[in-house]
């Protein structure tokens, strides 16, 4: 069976793939989104939901700039998604606080932020270590174990699961074709374009975006690209609902739109193990309870884990195949933060415009220094 007439096929229906696919439909491209469906290792299930700039970009100021650009676009992105999909992704952009729980952590974070700021050039990289009174106003219930808190007006948060649902719905309402339960087996090219074998069908298209998360490396190799990704397990918890409390999210706790407090998160190199470990969750609970002692009085309703995507250097990947023109790869671990630029900026590149100069550093050649030289 052949499904013809697609300008572009996006492989991967998680936050990165769905954001790009939605963005491509905004200007009328005929797009098919091939997704593994519920069997996929969705990073969005374990995403803490932060739209975050603080602390990103050490050694790579372009990443700080890219994150800031997306955070700046997020309000317009959320409003557009609400209009098209009818879903509120619960985006708030009132800033965020990076808390530290020891003198050593405080020194480390101050040095990190100062280093990023010094390399930011003309970029508007704003943060401020707040006095205790201001911290307690933003985050009521703050405990004596908190040493310091850095506030940035660039930061915020959203609901990653509603975001994924909204992207899928908006994509379809814009005319996109969503095809779940289609694991890609092969990519073949000829003078007429590309053919993708997936789920017993063949999908024909002119261009392809590989945004399949942890499956991107395997698929990128089919088109001559080295795009290595590894899984990093994140474990989280959520409490019972309480009345609105926090004005902003922090790196330790954020209040969801439904009222529960989300506590997180771990970063574990355990391969493809999606289990939960009580010792790791105990560490998460200890840190969050040290910051907010009142958490002792709340019930934890759920604990879970998911696998996030990480590249060898922690930075995103954006590249076009040297052997298969018109086939692109996009991978990153900041699917929520970067969703706005993936929807509003990356589609122009996929349609054939040159990659922006500030994104050249995210090409795959950096993983093979000798080859790049």
What's the alpha carbon Rg, rounded to whole Å?
21 Å
The unreliable regions are none
Mean pLDDT across residues: 93
Proportion of residues in β-strands: 25-35%
CATH topology value of the largest domain: FAD/NAD(P)-binding domain
| CATH class membership of the largest domain | Alpha Beta
CATH architecture annotation of the largest domain: 3-Layer(bba) Sandwich
CATH-defined superfamily of the largest domain: FAD/NAD(P)-binding domain
Instruction: Report how far apart the termini are.
Output: 44 Å
Helix content: 25-40%
DSSP helical segment count: 10
- Give the domain tally: 2
How would you describe what is shown here?
The structure is a single chain. The protein is globular and about 65 Å long. A hairpin with a 4-residue loop joins strand 13 (253-255) and strand 14 (260-264). Strands 1, 2, 8, 9, 10, 11, 16 and 17 form an 8-stranded mixed β-sheet that branches. Strands 13-14-12-15 form a 4-stranded antiparallel β-sheet, covered by helices on one side. The model has no long low-confidence stretch (mean pLDDT 93). The chain is an alpha+beta fold. The relative contact order is 0.21. Helix 1 runs parallel beside helix 5 (160-173) and helix 2 crosses helix 5. It contains 10 helices and 17 strands. The chain has 2 domains: 2-49 and 161-228 and 315-372, FAD/NAD(P)-binding domain (3-Layer(bba) Sandwich); 96-153 and 230-310, D-Amino Acid Oxidase, Chain A, domain 2. It is 29% helix and 26% strand.
């Amino acid at each position: 069976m052949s499904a013809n007439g697609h300008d572009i096929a996006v492989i991967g229906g998680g936050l990165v793939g769905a954001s790009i696919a939605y963005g491509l439909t905004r200007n009328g491209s005929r797009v098919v989104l091939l997704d593994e469906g519920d069997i996929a290792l969705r990073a969005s299930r374990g995403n803490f939901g932060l739209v975050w700039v603080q602390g990103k970009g050490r050694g790579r100021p372009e990443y700080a700039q890219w994150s800031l650009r997306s955070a700046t676009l997020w309000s317009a992105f959320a409003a557009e998604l609400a209009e098209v999909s009818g879903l509120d992704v619960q985006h708030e952009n009132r800033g965020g606080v990076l808390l530290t729980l020891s003198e050593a952590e405080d020194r480390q974070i101050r040095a990190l932020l100062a280093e990023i700021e010094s390399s930011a050039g003309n970029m508007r990289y704003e943060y401020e270590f707040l006095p205790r009174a201001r911290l307690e106003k933003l985050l009521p219930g703050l405990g004596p174990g908190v040493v310091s808190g850095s506030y940035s007006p660039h930061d915020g948060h959203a609901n990653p699961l509603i975001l994924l649902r909204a992207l899928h719905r908006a994509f379809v309402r814009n005319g996109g074709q969503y095809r779940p339960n289609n694991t890609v087996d092969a990519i073949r090219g000829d003078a007429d374009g590309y053919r993708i074998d997936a789920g017993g069908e063949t999908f024909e298209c002119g261009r392809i975006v590989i945004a399949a998360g942890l499956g991107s490396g395997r698929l990128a190799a089919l088109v001559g690209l080295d795009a290595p990704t590894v899984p990093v397990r994140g474990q989280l918890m959520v409490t019972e609902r309480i009345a609105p409390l926090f004005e902003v999210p922090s790196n330790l706790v954020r209040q969801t739109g439904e009222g529960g407090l989300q506590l997180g998160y771990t970063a574990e190199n355990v391969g493809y193990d999606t289990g939960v470990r009580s010792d790791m969750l105990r560490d998460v609970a200890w840190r969050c309870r040290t910051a907010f002692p009142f958490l002792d009085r709340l019930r934890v309703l759920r604990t879970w884990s998911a696998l996030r995507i990480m590249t060898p250097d922690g930075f995103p990947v954006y590249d076009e195949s040297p052997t298969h023109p018109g086939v692109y790869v996009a991978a990153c671990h900041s699917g929520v933060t970067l969703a706005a630029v993936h929807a509003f900026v990356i589609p122009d590149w996929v349609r054939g415009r040159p990659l922006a100069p500030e994104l050249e550093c995210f090409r795959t050649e950096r993983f093979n220094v000798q080859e790049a030289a």
